[in-house]
């Protein structure tokens, strides 16, 4: 177990990190931060524009800088971007600074949840399922490596998913309150 005052959510695109994360933050009385939204706030443009102008490497640099900053705060729930785990320094910061919960999902559930989403640069193109599968092959071992808790996918809505997460987190998170 990883005692901490912070809760960090990791997982694939469409796993529910933002929608479930908001509810978890409210339940636990934590400040909610979404890493992609923080990047957009700092840059003044959508993530897709950052990708377009700076490429994935530029985006990842910005992501790492803000993950470092956000994870240093106390009493936060941080919903990371799906690829934040690709950087070893990000993984180390997450493990050292918070309790890490991995929201698991399946490619089928991702496709269902993301069917109308046109804003994610790494999903651009025709074969979304192949892209999601390729990302999962690289990222799932990294999620597994740093997760204090793996939360299986729930196919119901946000409310049921949130309640499921709370029950599992409550049974394993040794929460420390922010000073």
UniProtKB/TrEMBL annotation:
Entry's HAMAP family?
Shikimate_kinase (MF_00109)
Q: Which SUPFAM superfamilies match?
A: P-loop containing nucleoside triphosphate hydrolases (SSF52540)
Q: What is its EC number?
A: 2.7.1.71
Q: Which reaction does it catalyse?
A: shikimate + ATP = 3-phosphoshikimate + ADP + H(+)
Q: How does it assemble?
A: Monomer.
Q: Which organism is it from?
A: Rhodanobacter glycinis
Residues annotated as binding Mg(2+):
18
Pathway per its UniProt entry is:
Metabolic intermediate biosynthesis; chorismate biosynthesis; chorismate from D-erythrose 4-phosphate and phosphoenolpyruvate: step 5/7
Task: State the protein's purpose.
Answer: Catalyzes the specific phosphorylation of the 3-hydroxyl group of shikimic acid using ATP as a cosubstrate.
Q: Where in the cell does this protein reside? A: Cytoplasm
Lineage: superkingdom: Bacteria
Cofactors: Mg(2+)
Any one GO cellular component localisation term in the record? cytosol
- Annotated ATP binding sites: 14-19, 120
Which terms does the record give in the GO molecular function aspect? ATP binding; magnesium ion binding; shikimate kinase activity
Instruction: List the protein's name.
Output: Shikimate kinase
Alphabetized PANTHER family for the sequence: SHIKIMATE KINASE, SHIKIMATE KINASE 1, CHLOROPLASTIC
């Amino acid at each position: 177990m990883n005692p901490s005052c912070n809760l960090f959510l990791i997982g694939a695109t469409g796993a529910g990190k933002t929608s479930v994360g908001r509810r978890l933050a409210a339940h636990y009385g934590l400040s909610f931060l979404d890493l992609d939204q923080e990047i957009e706030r700092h840059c003044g443009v959508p993530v897709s524009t950052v990708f377009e102008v700076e490429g994935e490497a530029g985006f990842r640099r910005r992501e790492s800088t803000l993950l470092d900053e956000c994870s240093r705060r106390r009493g936060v729930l941080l919903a990371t971007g799906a690829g934040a785990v690709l950087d070893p320094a990000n993984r180390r910061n997450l493990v050292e600074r918070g309790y890490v919960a991995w929201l698991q999902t399946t490619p089928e559930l991702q496709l269902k949840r993301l069917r109308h989403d046109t804003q994610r640069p790494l999903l651009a193109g025709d074969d979304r399922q192949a892209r999601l599968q390729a990302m999962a092959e690289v990222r799932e071992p990294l999620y597994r490596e740093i997760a204090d808790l793996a939360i299986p996918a729930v196919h119901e809505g946000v409310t049921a998913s949130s309640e499921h997460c709370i029950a599992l987190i409550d049974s394993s998170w040794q929460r420390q309150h922010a000073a």
